[in-house]
């Protein structure tokens, strides 16, 4: 018995039936369908959003119970804020200390002391388990798992840099929606190959996102510009003084530049499908271990940079250099050692070879972990396996947030949690199934603040219409994600004249 996958049934020699006759499918179409099915599974549902809102409120109660932290705010950042998290993604939390209207500063030892107080409160109040205190990291953190959905949380003190980086990644997605889809797919692929864990010396999710941005910058034609055209300065250095003013300045600069980029009529449009972009992504970094010997990745400039001539990167002490575009010259891939760099390169090489080989291998065998494959299998056809992949059918437990039987995309309304964060047009919006978050959810994530310190103006690229899509619109096999160069609105206050940007040639 064969399993119907999306609209097709996979047969030997890549034949498929879709109800309108038998079609000959090449490996590209097989990959496109597989990517669509992965997105259906890894995209957060309404329940996933709701659970994280509840966990944030639980952590607020914990922090408020600590006397020395009275007045502090609990603010999410990371993939939850950038809308790049999967159903099993962690939740990053920053406890921002009160300092009037000014950006608070605290030394590492003081942060370590405060996290110990939070640790005691977590143990005393309950609701969390697996509590671990990591004091000697560059940024001291407290790790714990919530009893609500087993959501893993990383808690830090005064991580405003992380919050702003998350906003900037969200705004990057406003330029081209394929960026978010690629991040979700690449995260799952990287986990399947064991290269998405900085604790074991491989790539963290932020580095993976930067690799995708770099790939989009160096496509022909380019999909994204160098990030210096969105924010030309060093964001981390500019976060000083009055918080509301500093954040607003960064937001205004990014808003003007993003609107300019989106409304640029001279912009060359790249209409590559998601499948094409994924294959070329793998191909681009097949030689990453060799190239990293002499060059580093700069998304700020949108090109490979020679390490020997970049004085900010001297001396070369890392196996791989992926510069943080918003906190230069910090290396986001500093945890990667030489041995793991070869492992990373091997994952790119083997995946590219298998997905482009004439030998018929199902793309899901390359792209997902066994537990995710099991979820796809159960969700598409109860009791049946994907043809040609029975040997991979397993029934493991997902470590974080076990999902059991796959839920259809009819998640509950989130009015209980987001009604107070209604969109500026007056109507509350809800989130169902594996679709992008509503404007109400987005505004909660990165605009709402108990002290109302964060600027409440509309975000760059936000529009009043609903962001919902049908499932078939997530990844279409025959209709690529095309971008209208006029779909953005030019800022009336923009003083920067339209500029034409092209991909920088690779060395």
From TrEMBL:
Region described as Disordered: 391-507
Superkingdom, natural source: Eukaryota
Molecular-function GO term, any one: RNA uridylyltransferase activity
InterPro entries documented for this protein: MTPAP-like_central, NT_sf
SUPFAM superfamilies: Nucleotidyltransferase, PAP/OAS1 substrate-binding domain
Composition bias type Polar residues, residue spans: 391-403, 416-431, 438-455, 485-496
Record's protein name: Poly(A) RNA polymerase mitochondrial-like central palm domain-containing protein
Annotated organism of origin: Tagetes erecta (African marigold)
């Amino acid at each position: 018995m064969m399993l119907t996958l999306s609209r097709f049934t996979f047969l030997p020699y890549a034949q498929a039936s879709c109800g309108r006759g038998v079609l000959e499918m090449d490996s590209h179409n097989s990959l496109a369908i597989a990517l669509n099915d992965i997105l259906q599974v890894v995209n957060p549902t309404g329940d996933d959003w709701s659970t994280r809102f509840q966990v944030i409120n639980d952590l607020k109660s914990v922090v408020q119970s600590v006397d020395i932290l009275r007045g502090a705010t609990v603010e999410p950042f990371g993939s939850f804020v950038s809308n790049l998290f999967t159903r099993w993604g962690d939740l990053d939390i920053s406890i921002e200390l009160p300092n009037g209207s000014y950006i608070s500063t605290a030394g590492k030892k003081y942060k370590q002391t405060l996290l110990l107080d939070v640790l005691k409160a977590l143990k005393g109040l309950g609701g969390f388990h697996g509590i671990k205190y990591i004091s000697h990291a560059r940024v001291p953190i407290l790790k714990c798992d919530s009893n609500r959905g087993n959501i893993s949380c990383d808690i830090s003190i005064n991580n405003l840099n992380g919050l702003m980086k998350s906003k900037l990644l969200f705004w990057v997605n406003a330029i081209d929606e394929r960026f978010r889809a690629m991040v979700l797919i690449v995260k799952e692929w990287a986990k399947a190959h064991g290269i998405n864990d900085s604790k074991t010396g491989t790539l963290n999710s932020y580095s993976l996102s930067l690799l995708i941005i770099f790939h989009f910058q160096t496509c022909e034609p380019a999909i994204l510009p160098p990030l210096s055209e969105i924010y030309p300065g060093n964001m981390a250095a500019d976060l000083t003084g009055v918080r509301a003013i500093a954040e607003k300045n960064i937001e205004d600069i990014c808003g003007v530049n993003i609107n300019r980029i989106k409304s640029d009529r001279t912009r060359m449009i790249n209409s590559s499908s998601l499948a094409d972009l994924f294959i070329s992504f793998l191909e681009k970094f097949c030689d990453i271990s060799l190239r990293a010997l002499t060059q580093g990745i700069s998304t700020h400039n949108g090109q490979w940079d020679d390490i020997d001539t970049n004085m900010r990167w001297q001396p070369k002490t890392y196996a791989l250099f992926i510069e943080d575009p918003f906190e230069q010259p910090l290396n986001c891939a500093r945890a990667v050692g030489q041995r793991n760099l070869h492992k990373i390169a091997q994952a790119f090489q083997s995946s590219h070879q298998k997905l482009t080989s004439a030998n018929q291998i199902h793309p899901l065998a390359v792209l997902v972990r066994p537990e995710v494959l099991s979820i796809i299998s159960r969700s598409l056809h109860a009791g049946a396996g994907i043809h040609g992949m029975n040997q991979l059918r397993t029934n493991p437990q997902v470590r974080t947030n076990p999902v059991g039987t796959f839920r259809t995309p009819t998640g509950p309304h989130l009015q209980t949690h987001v009604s107070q964060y209604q969109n500026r047009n007056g109507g509350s919006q809800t989130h169902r199934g594996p679709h992008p978050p509503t404007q109400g959810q987005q505004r909660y994530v990165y605009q709402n603040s108990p002290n109302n310190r964060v600027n409440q103006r509309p975000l760059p690229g936000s529009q009043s219409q609903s962001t919902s899509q049908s499932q078939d619109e997530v990844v279409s096999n025959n209709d690529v994600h095309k971008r209208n160069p006029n779909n953005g609105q030019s800022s009336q206050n923009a003083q920067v004249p339209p500029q034409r940007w092209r991909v920088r040639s690779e060395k």
